[in-house]
Every structure is written in structure tokens, then in C-alpha cells.
Amino acid sequence: MEYAVVKTGGKQYKVSPGDILDVDRINEISEGENVTLDSVLLMCDSKGQLTYGDPVIKGAKVTGTVEKHLRGDKIIVFRFKNKTRAGTKTGHRQELTRIKIDKLTKRQTRTQKPKAEESVEAPSKPRTRKTKPKTETTSEN
Q1: Going by DSSP bridges, is the β-strand pair 86-92/75-81 parallel, antiparallel, or unpaired?
Q2: pTM of the model
Q3: Closest to 33 measured CA to CA, from 100, 103, 95, 96
Q4: Gap between the Cα atoms of 2 and 17, Å rounded
Q5: Strand intervals (E) in 1-141
Q6: Cβ atoms 22, 72 nearer than 8 A
Q7: Residue 118 predicted with pLDDT over 70
């Protein structure tokens, strides 16, 4: 199973190809355009091999298509002050962007061929700290 963990809008999401994801509104991209999420924190390929970043995987991308911009469900916020029986009721709807994940891509790593002749160097001496010789001081009263 191929999946990745991406970070967008201060939140982390586990995604795989074909998933539909609601993230915080991305105003720069209109509906139908492609979006690339570069901050991939973890990736698992189809063989089950995990790759994780420090903090992100360099060269890894998750690409998707913006389906539409929408608003989330209404959340009711009611503040009540006791003893005076006063309260205020307000609502909030979060602006969201719906993204369909198309593919996960990881940068291909090159395998280095072993060198035919490797030079063997003598181990260097460990660095020692030079200190001044201690001299005894006598105090006379």
C-alpha cells in the first residue's frame, strides 16, 4: 500500500493516490488546477519500505487536482456569563479546499558504484589539548 504523510495548513494528513482531502483554503489556486504539496514528512512505497525526512523528504512531492472550494459545517460558539444570565451566540464556518490526490513521487536516489582502488590512509592521531604545566603557588601570611 502506497501512502504519504504531508503537512499543509499547519496540519498533517495521511494520503494515498485516489484520496479526496479537505484542507484549509488555498487561495492562490483555482478550481481544476494542479496543486503540488512539497512538505512530505513520511512516504511508504508499494513494497512497504518507509522513508522519513528530517523534517521533510527532499525531492518528494504529492500532486493533486483542486476539485472545488467550499465551506465546512457551521460550528456554534455560545459564551455564557453566569450570575447575570447573559450570553452571546456566534457561528463559524471554515473555508476549505477539496483536493483529489493523483500521485506520489519520490526523488530517485542514485546508487554509487564502489571504487576499484580505495586508498588506505593511516589513522591520524587523536587531537590532544595542550595545557600549561601546573606550577605550585605558595601563599605567605
Answers
A1: antiparallel
A2: 0.69
A3: 100
A4: 8
A5: 3-8, 11-15, 20-24, 34-37, 40-44, 50-52, 61-71, 75-81, 86-92, 95-105
A6: yes
A7: no
